[in-house]
């Protein structure tokens, strides 16, 4: 199994690296990429099409569009991690309130 961790901004790398370190502890192959649903949608699309990825972990703050965009492009599992920016409510609600047919598993802020 391979996990691809996507973050929407370079400022989110620290949280992604913590997740990567935990996956490495369990000997789960993983990689981290910065890919914004708004600024670099072509890169997001390319990463989603990678056949070697089995699970996506998408971390994003503010509008947190990344998990939903990834889920709309794949049938593979997507885990959305809302990141604490300001109070964190915007990103949390963006991840948990997906429209029908766009399944995203959600975890707590910065989890």
Task: Name the descriptors.
single chain; about 110 residues; alpha/beta; Rossmann fold; about 35% helix; about 20% strand; globular; PurE_dom
Helix count equals 4
Total separate domains: 1
Class from helix and strand fractions: alpha/beta
CATH architecture: 3-Layer(aba) Sandwich
Helix content: 25-40%
What CATH calls the topology is Rossmann fold
What about the largest sheet?
5 strands, parallel
CATH class: Alpha Beta
Q: What is the end-to-end distance?
A: 21 Å
Rg: 13 Å
The SSE string, one letter per element, is EHEHEHEHE
Q: How confident is the prediction overall: mean pLDDT?
A: 93
Q: Beta-sheet strand percentage?
A: 15-25%
Pfam families: AIRC
Domain PurE: 1-111
InterPro entries: PurE_dom (IPR000031), PurE_prokaryotes (IPR024694)
Protein name: Phosphoribosylaminoimidazole carboxylase, catalytic subunit
């Amino acid at each position: 199994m391979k996990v691809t961790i996507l973050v929407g901004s370079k400022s989110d790398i620290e949280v992604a690296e913590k997740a990567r370190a935990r996956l490495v502890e369990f000997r789960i192959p993983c990689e981290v990429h910065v890919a914004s649903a708004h600024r670099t949608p072509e890169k997001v699309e390319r990463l989603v099409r990678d056949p070697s990825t089995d699970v996506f972990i998408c971390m994003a703050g503010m509008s947190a569009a990344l998990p939903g965009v990834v889920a709309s492009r794949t049938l593979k599992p997507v885990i959305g991690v809302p990141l604490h920016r300001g109070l964190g409510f915007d990103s949390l609600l963006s991840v948990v309130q997906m429209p029908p047919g766009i399944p995203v598993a959600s975890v707590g802020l910065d989890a």
